[in-house]
Amino acid sequence: MSDTDNTSENTLVPTEQEERGIVPAESKANALRPNMIYCYGCGQQIHQQARACPHCGAPSRSADSLQNVLGGKGKNRIVAAVLAFWLGIFGAHRFYLGNPIMAIFYILFFWTLIPSFVALGEGIYFLCMDPQRFDEKYNRRR
Asked: What pLDDT, in 10s, does the model give residues 7-57?
């Protein structure tokens, strides 16, 4: 028997069920269902609005982001960046993000133009920032 005979025996030939489009029950169970996401901790399927995984207890990263998008609550990083670009010299983005003390420093020193350069850098930072990290930093529940 030669090596070519072994390879022809080991090739996978689709079964009659696979040819007709019938998927085994195992494959159906592993398919992602609607409104479900994978847990970042254990990889199990959880509902997209679940706050934590029922299997491992890991907090869901998308629950807070999804709630902010659907509910219209929380701060938006694009709005913060636009405020930093256009009204950053007066600290408007700091007022928006809930940091009024820093915003007052922007107002006190606007005549030096230093706050405008700082705000420009912060606007770029907000645009480049990961949305998950922005939510963790500025949209945390109090």
From this structure: 445 455 555 555 555 544 444 555 667 777 777 678 788 877 777 888 888
Nearest to 53 by CA among 117, 9, 45, 93: 45
Cβ neighbours around 62 below 10 Å, total: 16
Strand, helix or coil for residue 41: coil
What are the structure tokens assigned to 62, written together?
Answer: 């998308």
DSSP letters spanning 126-137? HHHS-HHHHHHH
Q: How confident is the model at residue 66 (pLDDT cuts 50, 70, 90)?
A: very low
What's the DSSP call for residue 139?
S
pLDDT cut 70: percent of the chain above it = 65
Q: Which residues contact 121 (CB under 8 A, 6 or more apart)?
A: none
* Residue 119 and residue 85 in contact, taking contact as beta carbons nearer than 8 Å: yes
Unique residue bearing structure tokens 């090596």 = 3
